[in-house]
Amino acid sequence: MEPTKKTKGRGAQKNVHNRFLQDVHETRADFLEYCHKEGEEADKNKTTYTNVFPKTIVNKVQSPDVGMTYSLNPYQGCEHGCIYCYARNSHEYWGFSAGLDFERKILVKRNAAELLEEKLKKKSWQAYTIVLSGNTDCYQPAEKELEITRSLLKVFLKYKHPVAIITKNSLILRDLDILTALAEDNLIGVNISITSLSEETRRVLEPRTATIKKRLETVKILSENGIPVNVMLAPIIPSINSHEILPLAKTVSELGAKSIAFTIVRLNGAIGEIFSDWIHKTMPDKAEKVLHQIESCHGGTLNDSRFGSRMRGEGKIAEQIRNLIKLARLKYFKNTQMPKLNTTLHEQYKNGQYSLF
């Protein structure tokens, strides 16, 4: 039996079974009753950090529809707790649940900068944009103290190598000095994820992310400093934020964003169960409506893993969303676009400084 009390400050409201594990962990009602009588907490709801030491850090992206070729993730798991996050499933490969474990058990790659430097110095490596946060946010709360992402940016700058960033966190502004230096040689592009203009919606969807106000300020400050910004309206969730596409596009265009991108929510793997449990507890009056509309975008199922259609959706609702995005681009981004990053400088800086020969 699962606890019925809402877990504050978290997206997922339970741990779901890890498909790779035989044993199932269950929170029983008699245990909860015992904790209540003894005045103990059944679940302390704390975030823990574990150091891991991978041998490589740059990942070749095999999926043909994610818009990147190489990614780098200094953290596994993400304390932001976005309920819809596709990366939740990856936590199962580490032996954890895609639910609360994903938000509370964070794996930290402290040797990330050293591994990146080794990669960029290899004679066989040819410069190609590497995306920070292809899986989990490189500016999640742990980064404020650990500064692993900042150390990675220093490596990219040292070797004049192009890098793109995806984040929901205004903490990126801490590294404005490095970002502006990268921008001088067209080596940086930033993707800021903004799913809503409503702070109430943000709090329930993405409980530990930066506020909407701070994210909008981040778009403005980055743009004013010559750093190109693409805003990710992702994911679009029918009947939750689908009505905000045009207001969002207009707002971020006025703040200097060069483009927008979108995906339609897809609840693959364990996320279908996690999201369904969450919405019944958080928005019980509209839960079934939202779930059925999501299903209508993916051939009648919450779990859609088909390349090409999984992010764009299908059916009437998905078509309406795509048409709104098309209209938004015509109205607000007709003459702007993200620049292609510079891959020509790195070869001359393979040893960490400019080479004349």
TrEMBL record:
The keyword Cell membrane does not apply. Residues 64-298 form the Radical SAM core domain. Transmembrane segments: none annotated. Keywords: Iron, Iron-sulfur, Metal-binding. Gene3D superfamilies: 3.80.30.30. It holds the Pfam family Radical_SAM. SUPFAM superfamilies: Radical SAM enzymes. InterPro entries: Elp3/MiaA/NifB-like_rSAM (IPR006638), MJ0683-like (IPR040086), rSAM (IPR007197), rSAM_sf (IPR058240). This is PA0069 family radical SAM protein. It comes from Kordia aestuariivivens.
